[in-house]
Specification:
The protein is mostly beta strands. The chain has 4 helices and 28 strands. 8% of the residues lie in helices and 39% in strands.
């Protein structure tokens, strides 16, 4: 058996991807697996990469489902695979979960998927580079990956520091790939031509968990931090600066930049969005109407309205900075649909429902207020982030099934 870095610490548990562990609220107490043939093998195999909580708290699978999932994490002999999957299916069968709601509509899409080379790498976020290549962060394999969607050729780049925990990534105008080293407490830059990695350490020990990066129009890099901060790097000088949010114990998550160069982010620990003044880095917070709102990812349309996925309540929302008002629509999959990744192509909003089976790709037209949905062919296993390409398509990271995807959107 070849042991590979684990993939599905969140795939196996959509519960953990919600307000508990996903918000960094401490470590969970290790649980015990039930007795039965295969218990010892599962315990040894799985705890090399993640805790047993991920199995116990999972939504469960059939034996075929467990086999498909485990094949994206490790390779093992057929007899051992049969023992492991039989045990898991017997003790952790499929639990009730919202079914994907498919809504027809006028748009057409073609979803192409690629399994990334390293099993168990857990591709967390995707990015599109100026040359049209698709990139991903191998969060559990300490790599960045590149895909040429025209040929299917892939290459992985090992990062400079062990256990960097690469999370988000974005390409600059020259084609360098910048990433957040969530575990390594740094932001890094990869030169794809040489493979050289430059690291930018956080300025102090309190600046923990660099999360999602984005460039502004001037070429400055902005990023969120799980420790209640927003950061900025000036690539010309290498200066790194972070500022705290006005409210304590926040969790800045997704971040975008509007047409005037103002960064906007969402707070996954509270019902608020925030903006950052680009020069002074002064943060202003805006409260969303429902106290239970937990916005996770964010997009900004050409009219500078801020769109967000409310992961906790199952809503798509929009905040208008001009009026200070928010409006929301219930996601097609319902309250437990866990809206997550979001992007826009022009005024059209795209997002994923990570809590339904299989995960869905959702299209929303603000002009008509109509939804259209498609299921992710591989199931998705938690689509954490998506980005729009310059030609109006979408790239996705399918963490739970060790894949990246290109959504080719039909042109009118």
């Amino acid at each position: 058996m070849q042991k590979i870095s684990a993939l599905v610490s969140v795939t196996l548990s959509l519960t953990l991807a919600t307000t508990g562990a996903a918000q960094g609220q401490g470590q969970q107490r290790q649980v015990q697996l039930p007795d039965g043939e295969g218990r010892e093998v599962v315990q040894v195999l799985c705890t090399q990469c993640h805790t047993l909580n991920n199995i116990v708290n999972s939504h469960g699978y059939t034996q075929a489902g467990w086999k498909s999932l485990i094949s994206s994490m490790v390779r093992m002999r057929p007899e051992r695979e049969a023992l492991v999957t039989a045990y898991l299916a017997r003790h952790f069968p499929v639990k009730p979960a919202p079914e994907a709601v498919v809504i027809p509509g006028p748009a057409t899409v073609n979803i192409r998927e690629w399994m990334v080379p390293t099993l168990g790498s857990r591709p967390h976020d995707p990015a599109i580079a100026p040359d049209g290549s698709i990139w991903w962060t191998g969060q559990f394999s300490n790599t960045l990956g590149r895909l040429d969607p025209r040929t299917g050729a892939m290459r992985e780049y090992m990062l400079k520091s062990p256990n960097s925990g690469p999370h988000g990534l974005v390409a600059d105008r020259a084609g360098n790939i910048w990433y957040t080293g969530q575990s390594g407490q740094h932001v890094g830059k990869l030169d794809p031509l040489s493979g050289a990695v430059t690291e930018y350490p956080m300025p102090d020990s309190a600046a923990r968990g660099p999360h999602t990066p984005i460039f502004d129009q001037r070429g400055n890099l902005w990023f969120t931090l799980q420790s209640g901060m927003v950061g900025r790097i000036l690539p010309a000088t290498g200066e790194v600066k972070v500022v705290r949010t006005p409210t304590a114990r926040t969790y800045p998550y997704g971040i975008v930049v509007n047409s005037t160069g103002v960064p906007w982010y969402v707070d996954f620990r509270g019902n608020r969005v925030g903006s950052v003044e680009p020069t002074t880095m002064q943060i202003r917070e805006y409260t969303l109407p429902d106290t239970g709102a937990r916005p996770r990812r964010i997009a900004v349309t050409p009219d500078d309205k801020v769109w967000y996925t409310d992961h906790e309540r199952g809503y798509l929302g929009v905040f208008d900075p001009a009026t200070g008002r928010a409006r929301e629509w219930a996601s097609p999959g319902g309250r437990q649909s866990r809206p997550y990744a979001i992007a826009n192509t022009g005024s059209i909003i795209w997002y994923s429902e990570s809590g339904v089976r299989p995960n869905t790709l959702v299209r929303f037209d603000p002009a008509t207020e109509r939804f259209q949905t498609w299921t992710i062919p591989s199931g998705g296993g938690v689509v954490r982030h998506m980005m729009a390409t310059p030609d109006g398509n979408l790239v996705l990271a399918l963490s739970g099934v060790n894949r990246v995807a290109l959504v080719e959107v039909g042109k009118d």
